[in-house]
Amino acid sequence: MNHPSSGTLPLASVRSSNLGLAPFDLTGYKGVHGLNFYDEDRLLQKIIERYSETYTPEHLNAIKEHLHQYGELAGGVLNDLTEACHKDGKWGKIKKYDRFGERVESIEYSQEQIELRRIHYEHGIINLDRHPYWNYEFTFLHKMALAYLTATNGEGGVACPLAMLDGMVQILEALGTPKQKEKFLPLIVGPESKSHFMVGQYLTERVGGSNVGENRTIARQIDEEKWVLEGEKWFCSNPGDLWVTTARIEGSSIIGLFLVSRIKENGELNGFYMLRKKQIIGSKGKVTVEGIYEDLEAELLGRPGHGLGNVIKYVVQTSRIHVSTSSIAYSRRAFMEARAYTKVRTAYKKTIAQFPSVQRILAEMQILHSSVLWCIFKNMMLTEKKEKITQILIPLLKYSASTHSAWIINESIMLHGGNGVLDDFSCLPRLRNDAIINEIWEGSHQIITGHALKAFFRPQIQKSYFDLLSENAQGAEKYPNLLSSLAVFQEEKQNLESLISTGKKEVYNSRLFFCDKLFYCFALSEWLNDAKLYQEPISIDFVQGLSEMIKYGKGSPLSKESIFRDSDRIKALIDY
Predict the structure, then answer these.
(1) Crossing angle of helices 140-150 and 57-75, rounded to 10°
(2) Burial of 137: CB neighbours in 10 Å, binned 0-12, 13-18, 19+
(3) CA count, 13 A, side-chain hemisphere, 573
(4) 3-class secondary-structure state, position 245
(5) Taking the model in full, what pTM does it have?
(6) Rounded mean pLDDT of 16-22?
(7) pLDDT, tens digit, for every residue of 472-514?
(8) Quick one: which of 283, 325, 336, 375 has its CA closest to 37?
(9) Distance between CA 380 and CA 146 in Å, rounded?
(10) At what angle do helices 356-384 and 537-552 cross, to 10 degrees?
(11) Which of 211, 224, 251, 455 is deepest in the core (most CB within 10 A)?
């Protein structure tokens, strides 16, 4: 028998005679491609409104327009470029030598990745305040809303470098000398810069993993400004023009923080040698390598004895905020894809979105995603105010965002059935692999929850946590439509206090369980606070849905009063 690929029959003729090749319910399906990702995200729009009360109307309108423009790019050309640069043969490669045999130690990216970074950079997602056309403060709220929208396309080779660049700018502005600021800030965030997101972090060594204090790389001072580093770095993320690194001060146990330029002041290549590219399961858009320092020239950042503290303050904390933000952006994209797919995929002569079980899982995905996103932006506002509670919330939300993101992406894949595991059908397999990296980056579950608990058991910080819970819930008893959710919150808070009374050792032994309780109490209190203040139906639905999921579990049998029995409220949640 001749097949269509043999060229013996016109394909149109084959389709007309072979019913198996007739159009079906997914013909022409494009998922969410082409949508404006900002205009589609009503919760993000609500967050912008909530936390911009002190802005002038002109400033707020400018932010909304900028986010609208970026949302169109994210759902259009940036989505296309991200897909294109993640195809086989388009990955970044190490280039050791040029055609003349001279050592270059650089990364070659595909034209699609280069263009992807250029568009992001020129839209000002990290340096808008340095663009001549922007006449307002570039606020933390605005910047992180852009970071969130960026990651709706996955890591993409941009989200991770964006976090590193943000950290680098903060480090230079806080610790850099006038000479360092003058030299390096225009290079990495100047409006005419060609170094688009080419900033990295080289901290980890094979002996210590996440424990930077175990670094074996040695730093030796040669004059007032210059140091020479010798050693190895196991994960060198996003090799580029400038990076921060750690090293042990020669003859001491002090870990210093250093600034390294790929090109030395005399124009020669610095002493960094790339050994091999890391074959990482996700976040493949940007390259990570192993490297050796040999006579590497570096400049000290801050005081030598403050190196570890500065790493945590400017590198780790910034990265954790970005990881939580990008994680929940992945889950937003996964939910959008699931919602779109279930509306067109048919089974038993109706779309699968019409099945109650599918509606429930979509609602649960939306509730969990929205709860984490709501808390993340509240934490950002607290971070901007330098509130003590953020010492708990930053690591806690990194853990909660990454774990919830993984669950939501998996559920989206399940709702897609066999199409969910096809690389060429949707972005979901790539998002899942990116999500795994976020679960590990800046602290695996055991490490990150340990950091949250270390902060929690400081009396003043623990007090700030419970004070915020009480403040959020105060007055909710006046509203009958919040009473059931308030009861769940109070029960969870009592359970949390009961666990604390068993002692610190027992809490640490059940750290993941305890941190889940910490997050859910915080999330419930935040929804209660918004619902009591504004009495918006959607906030009431979110708090009731979350309280039911906490009390009974995901997919559990439903009570007669369950929100998940109310088709109108479920539809409102799914479509929000």
Answers:
(1) 10
(2) exposed
(3) 29
(4) strand
(5) 0.94
(6) 72
(7) 999 999 999 999 999 999 999 999 999 999 999 999 999 999 9
(8) 336
(9) 13
(10) 110
(11) 455
Do the Cβ atoms of 372 and 66 come closer than 8 Å? no
pLDDT (0 to 100) of residue 13: 60
End-to-end distance of the chain based on CA atoms, in angstroms?
A: 52
DSSP string for 420-461 = GG-TTT-SHHHHHHHHHHHHHTT--HHHHHHHHHHHHTSHHH
Contact (CB, 8 A) for 322 and 147: yes
Does residue 157 sit in helix, strand or coil? coil
CB contact at 8 A, 537 and 342: no
Q: Among 242, 244, 235, which Cα is nearest to 283's? A: 235
Nearest to 28 by CA among 281, 340, 335: 340
Task: Give residues with Cβ within 8 angstroms of 560, minimum separation 6.
Answer: none
Q: CA-CA distance, 474 to 462, in Å (whole number)?
A: 18
Contact 379, 387 (CB under 8 A): no
φ, ψ at 176 (rounded to 5°): -70, 150
What whole-number distance in Å separates Cα of residue 398 and Cα of residue 320?
A: 6
- Separation between Cα atoms, residue 571 and residue 411, nearest integer Å: 18
Runs of H (alpha helix) within 190-316: 307-310
**CB contact set of 428 (below 8 Å; sequence gap of 6+):** 334, 337, 409, 412, 413, 416, 420
Measuring CA to CA, which residue among 373, 364, 374 is closest to residue 553?
364
Tokens representing 531 are: 């619902």
Q: Which of 386, 381, 382, 401 is nearest to 142 (CA)?
A: 381
The answer to whether 389 and 63 are in contact (CB under 8 A) is: no
Question: What is the rounded CA–CA span in Å between residue 451 and residue 444?
Answer: 11
Torsion angle, CA of 156/161/167/171, rounded to 10 degrees? -170
Q: How far is CA 463 from CA 174, 389, 468, in A?
A: 29, 9, 9
Rounded Cα–Cα distance for residues 61 and 292 (Å): 49
Residues of the chain above pLDDT 70, percent: 97
CA 389 to CA 367: how far, in whole Å? 24
- Give how far the C-alpha of residue 328 lies from the chain's centroid of Cα atoms, to the nearest Å: 6
Over residues 252-275, the mean pLDDT reads 95
Give the SS3 label for residue 44. helix
Q: CA–CA separation, 168 vs 145, rounded Å?
A: 19
CA distance 472 to 467: 9
Adjacent-strand bridge partners of 115 = none
Q: Where are the alpha helices (DSSP H) in 457-503?
A: 459-473, 483-501
Place of tokens 């853990």: 399
Other CB atoms within a 10 A radius of the CB of residue 470 amount to: 11
- Region 209-216 average pLDDT: 78
Place of tokens 């994209």: 333
The beta-carbon contacts of 118-122 under 8 Å, at least 24 apart in sequence, are 118/196, 119/73, 119/77, 119/78, 119/81, 120/78, 120/150, 120/158, 120/162, 120/196, 120/197, 121/193, 121/196, 121/197
For residue 1, the model assigns a pLDDT of 42
